Amino acid sequence: MVHFGVIFRILGLLLMLFSLSYLIPVGVSLAYQDGHASPFIYSLLITMTLGALLWLPFARSEQEMRSRDGFLITVSFWIVLGIAGALPLYLSDRQELIVTES
Known about the structure:
The protein is mainly alpha-helical. It has 4 helices and no strands.
């Protein structure tokens, strides 16, 4: 039997921790005043919100994690991490981000 409470709790916590990694590009963008901070800020907010929505309902769950749950957490997190990592690119609407040589 799979313990979905444990899986969602850990996945939500990992997403909230990953969302903090967007603070570095936001800081660099604000330091150089290049105007590209907004996709990273929105990505941080979206990822933090999704992580909190997964974590909060199961925050007090005290089920023990089994190896099957660990495998499912790993696979799920890699899939969700790829989507969350692509959010700034999806939210960016500036064409000058694409560098082409003529």
